[in-house]
Amino acid sequence: MADTVSERAKERRPEMSGHKGIPKGVVLGKDGKPCRTCASFRDWAAMTRKNTGSTAPTTSSAAAAAGAATATPPIDKPPEDCPADVETLGRGTWTFLHTLSATYPSHATPNQQSDMRAFLMLFAKLYPCWNCAQDFQAWMQKGGNEPRVRGRGEFGTWMCEAHNEVNRKLGKKEFDCRRWEERWRTGWGD
Ligand code: FAD
């Protein structure tokens, strides 16, 4: 029985636990089925084979050749009216979270601080990509990473550091946290 957040996560990550028939990048949900909001559209489509545009069975070589000529390249982004994948969900959520810090009072009252701490705890628990949520909770619980919510300045910087933690995990470029306010509150001034 797994007793830590990361051990529980490993139990449901097929790429870590060696599940057969489920491609890397697709993660199982708590119901044991592939989790759509935990995977990119690309990985999800690879699994469901609905994204290649050229895999429909053909009955003749002429039809196969025609299919190859008109094959549409795989689509990386979900159409706008499709359920969110991990990236669409992430972008929208970061917009919300950074805007939340940008509109936070510069000096928060004790009540506002405890509301924000409570929100962040619940957010990290309920975020609908469960493996993202578990890693985020684990990061928040590490010493030195507790939410800093006394006012906008430190909260915005904390949120930027939280986002950079995910950027690092995904191999993305880190953001310069001295500039979070230009990106999310004042604009770049150009
Ligand atoms: P995003 O990372 O979504 O960033 C949006 C914009 O924010 C950028 O264009 C940039 O202008 C700005 N920005 C970037 N970094 C910072 C920063 N540090 N501070 C301020 N502004 C910044 N995806 C996974 O595949 N696996 C995960 O485990 C995972 N965990 C996540 C956990 C949380 C809590 C959230 C909210 C999202 C998570 N995601 C995860 C999604 C992931 O972070 C991205 O949102 C997604 O990959 C889309 O990335 P993007 O390149 O479009 O830009």
UniProtKB/TrEMBL annotation:
Gene3D superfamilies: 4.10.320.60, ERV/ALR sulfhydryl oxidase domain. One of its GO terms (cellular component) is mitochondrial intermembrane space. Residues 1-28, 50-80 are annotated as: Disordered. Residues 82-184 form the ERV/ALR sulfhydryl oxidase domain. The keyword Disulfide bond applies. It comes from Glutinoglossum americanum. Residues 1-18 have a biased composition (Basic and acidic residues). Its EC number is 1.8.3.2. It is an enzyme of class 1 (oxidoreductase). GO terms for molecular function: flavin adenine dinucleotide binding; flavin-dependent sulfhydryl oxidase activity. Its cofactor is FAD. Residues 52-74 have a biased composition (Low complexity). It is found in: Mitochondrion intermembrane space. It holds the Pfam family Evr1_Alr. InterPro entries: ALR/ERV, ERV/ALR_sulphydryl_oxid_sf, ERV/ALR_sulphydryl_oxidase. This is Sulfhydryl oxidase.
